[in-house]
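for the writeup, i need someone to sanity check this before i put it in the appendix. the sequnce is what the collaborator sent (i think, or maybe the updated version? ugh). structure was predicted straight from it, no edits. if anything looks off just tell me and ill rerun, i have time this weekend
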Amino acid sequence: DAACAGRSGVVGSGAVRLVAVSKTKPAAAVAAAYAAGHRHFGENYAQELISKSMELPADVQWHFIGRLQSNKAKSLVKSCPSLACVETVDSEKLARVLDKGAVEAGRATKLRVMVQVNSSGEASKAGVAPSECVALCRVVAEECPALELAGLMTIGAPDYSGCRTEDFETLRRCRSEVAEALGREVSSLELSMGMSNDFERAILEGSTSVRVGSSIFGARSYP
């Protein structure tokens, strides 16, 4: 709440969505959060999202936030009618596969997607370079009729101080460039940025959606 209160002057400074990242956590943990009133959950793996979506109520809003291989994209769209957003579109190929999958799935509404930007320039990170962001957004907005360009997403470089702002600034700049190129209001494009260790700073920097996992569900244990 304190972070939201400090957003005066930020474009699109309304409510911020909290996506509870439940990767590797059992469906029971998601069900408990659902019972407490939460509805937006994020998963990094297609099969895990599909499996959990079959065990949980149909009004759960699922966000895919991991690397998505093109050969799994159609299955994800077809198997999860309540897929709310794919936040990690990083290629024209993936955008077109998702578009075709959404058509074949017969979705009642367009599938919301975000273009992932590699704002830190790290080779280990997925996402398009900032200089390529406008071109990919144009493909989504103008050549993929079953998709809705919801905004931009970034992971950014690790920051345990909560003070790194370069990645947030880069994503804001990309959003302004995309809005101008597509003739859209800046506030119509979301910014998905900020995780457990820096979500408060991200909110102050204009994030409209934060992805928080360990602070909600506890530390993850991997096989």
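Residues 166-182 form the longest helix (17 residues). The mean pLDDT is 91.
thx in advance!!
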